Amino acid sequence: MALKRSNNYGISAFLVSVFAHLLAIAVTILLLIWLLHFREGLAFKSDIKQKIFNVHPLLMILGFVLISGEAIMAYKTVPGRRKVQKILHLILHLIALVAGIVGIYAVIKFHNESGIPNIYTLHSWLGISTISLFGLQWLFSFFSLGYPGAKPTRRDRLVPWHALFGTVIFFMAILSAETGLVERFIFLRLHRNQEALVTVRRIKHKKKMKIAKKEVLLRPVHKLRSIDRPFDRLSSKPLIV
Hints:
The protein is mostly helical. Helix 2 packs antiparallel against helix 3 and helix 2 packs antiparallel against helix 5. The longest helix has 36 residues.
């Protein structure tokens, strides 16, 4: 696909686009491995509540952050007329907005079914603020810039502000994702240089549970009566929040 070249800041739009897409592919692969292999999988309805929660990071990162980034790059990466680029820019942002709304619904559903309060952390408030501003930006842009009846003079005057606020909101989305990961580290009681334990601890937890189950199955029946809920010691503090 042919890409436009830009001399802004002396950087080729082609090279930046290729680098951005490689990063997006890497993030997508790592995120899917984390959620599907290490974190039980995905589901909107399940007895394993972690599956419901997993929908949240999937949609917020892939849908809200990466697709928004793709929409921003549409004017440089999509060949064709300006009108085609504008329509694709608008549609991709709409997809990102819908993904963000569904992602927030998933985490609220998880909280309600798990008895956890909603919107009580910095990540929660920052995320709600970001998705709200994103929705307002999209509606305002549609009626003032994308709507066929909009005046050309108004468009020319508002485009720089649209680009500025859009960039700010995009970085707010990235910041929301980062605070979400930090929040996960805190809930897992991890310290500096222990980021890998987000998945490793889960593996160790599963291994301990398997070993404990084997020990219980191999013990005589009369000894099992003296065991008081043997698995509580292994999972007294949940690894998922």
